[in-house]
Amino acid sequence: MSVTDTELVPSLGTTEDEIYLQIQRFYAAQSQLLDFGRFEEWAATFTEDCSFTANGFPQPVRTRTALLAGTLQNHKVDEPGLRIRHWFGMTTVEPRADGTVYALSYVLVIRNHRNEPPFIYRSTRCEDVLVRNGNSWLVRDRIIRRDELTDE
Amino acid sequence: MSVTDTELVPSLGTTEDEIYLQIQRFYAAQSQLLDFGRFEEWAATFTEDCSFTANGFPQPVRTRTALLAGTLQNHKVDEPGLRIRHWFGMTTVEPRADGTVYALSYVLVIRNHRNEPPFIYRSTRCEDVLVRNGNSWLVRDRIIRRDELTDE
Amino acid sequence: MSVTDTELVPSLGTTEDEIYLQIQRFYAAQSQLLDFGRFEEWAATFTEDCSFTANGFPQPVRTRTALLAGTLQNHKVDEPGLRIRHWFGMTTVEPRADGTVYALSYVLVIRNHRNEPPFIYRSTRCEDVLVRNGNSWLVRDRIIRRDELTDE
Fold first, then answer.
1. What structural domains and CATH numbers belong to chain C?
2. A64, A124, B101, C131: which has the highest count of C-beta atoms within 10 A?
């Protein structure tokens, strides 16, 4: 936010609408980092002590270091002609008294192999607890539920 | 909006950009209520005297009571392993002189059966007339056009 | 923006969050113009001296006049029962010192033939340089990369 914070002007970036917009932008940037193979920068959008839980994983991943290692491992086997695009949408946010924000989003994972038509690889639900990081945010805890594996 | 409304600060929530963001958030919350089976709360996002018209329905549904009854009936037959996700996007808004807002959105309906890949079940266009409800909105009139049934 | 610009109130529409929201709205309106066959109005969302480059085109298209001519030509052959929907998402923006904005978005093109299910026709990446046009924006330079044709 480039607006000067004075006594007369409300501190921008702290109303719920402003938080909503920041988190929308955060997810867009985070998806691009992952999809463009910038895995270290992607991992840096999580806190050092983060947890990442998924109903497709045998157990939660804990710490940014472990998250990065697992992600690098997973993408080692990607074929070069495969493009992956993560689409966040239908996000709702709940700011909490401790300054964190709970956010629930739908996430579609679109895959596109070379010279083939794109398709929806996964439809998932993402629940995050986010913490402030200056004017942006970091994910502290993420839970991903793939729709084809859940009753909810 | 948590900003205190004073004479020095513009009344937030009333500029077109603010209305846009509110309506975007409204659609996200509304979709989650429907998709997570919270049908009474979903119906409560429409006015009591609402109309809901669709090119897939034989005739418009009128009143929130009838909308809820029809929706409960439709979802009775859903298989337990079916997840449905409504994605609103490409929304445009036109605030009108009477305080209502006309909004036109695209809506994708994604379906995911258990242990199967997700797919786009419907691509539709949604036209709403929304009325203010405190800091949020209610749908007074909705028209849904399924893309495979329309020439527009 | 309908807020009066005074010395006490920051000039709305110029912070990065406000620019982000404007550009989001711009893409929604632009997609509707294209998808609803309003090709002249769609072309008017580009500057007169625009360039439009795509990895599916033999060479860049230059000027709004040429862009409109090519677009009218392309859509002449559309079957009447075909609906096309452009979904922009995961947009990031970078305001630049010269007042332009660089924006990178994902774009899905959904197609729906009459009485058939919708499908994703293309998954692409869109890079724009946008210039201010009053309270809205115009595209000066656009590069589209279809995901199935790119290694990035």
1. 16-80+92-104+128-141 (3.10.450.50)
2. A124
